[in-house]
From TrEMBL:
Keyword Zinc-finger assigned: no
Annotated transmembrane regions: 48-66, 153-172, 184-205, 211-229
Protein name: Fatty acid desaturase
GO CC terms, sorted: membrane
Organism taxonomic ancestry: Bacteria, Pseudomonadati, Pseudomonadota, Alphaproteobacteria, Futianiales
Residue ranges of every copy of the Fatty acid desaturase domain listed in the record: 48-296
InterPro entries recorded: FA_desaturase_dom (IPR005804), Fatty_acid_desaturase (IPR012171)
Amino acid sequence: MSENSELRRHAQPFQVPLIGKSVSQVATSFGGFLATCAGMYVLNETSFWLALVLAPLAAGFLVRIFIIQHDCGHGSFFRGRRANDALGLACSLLTLTPYASWRRQHAGHHRVWNDLDRRESGADIYSACLTAAEYRDMSPSRRWWYRTTRHPFIANILLPPLVFLCLYRVPFDAPAAWRRERRAVYTTDIALAAMFGGLGLLLGFDAVATVHLPVMVLASIFGVWLFAIQHRGEDVLWARHDDWDAASASLKGSTFLRLPAVLQWFTGNIGYHHVHHLNPRIPNYRLQECHEALPPLRKVPGMSLRDGLRAVRFILWDEDLGRMVTVRQVDMRGTGA
């Protein structure tokens, strides 16, 4: 048995869900989110700006709910498929993310991440990149488009709310053959319309908008950044398919984001992304336990919060240098600067 296969075998015991921790995480995440939103509704009667103070806290709880949905999509939060899917659907009504469609898209990401020869079969702009050579071979207009769509302000500030509020309302990234997933997108829309329509009739549509829109905007920005940098950074490795294997890609192609304890709690330990990619069936609340138990995982270099903020600039893979680079670095090399 290879060293990488052995590591994956040693990680298997940690994929067993702990029902007490799962239930506790649901209670604290949903309870915290609903309580904070209720507080925002109360404060909104006095002042919108006063209510807005609680929006980052509500967004933090919403990110945690998305992590639960993410675990459910991997079948890791509960032992049974039905329990995972039922909870994942409940999460989707708060995250505005159609569960079935996102689950299948995300499964594609896990099959091809950091594989240079399979980038077009399940990746998105946050978990895929061009090589430096491919970028240099583009026309000036296409290079401009690539730079612009992946600029940190566009990709990490403007685009995330658009994706969650608008693009997820249609099956924009689901192939025509995904009939079940495409129908599920519209079913989610109907449920959302009923839920927010009922809230609007009960509490007022202005109140619903002033509470939930800021929360969704903040949660989408932070959540997308959180997932985007899990395969970014100067030392992240990409490989050609013949040299790619899942375990090596987990240790070298996924990051270990070290966060302060409070942020680690709100992000459901997803910073231990190298462990998650090694075995996606491990529940989020056991990722740290697995990391600390297996020496090869502890050797993965950690990324600080500051490094994570810088990582969004690394959007090209330089095969000659064997590392991620920024557009500016490639342009400077091209001019001989």
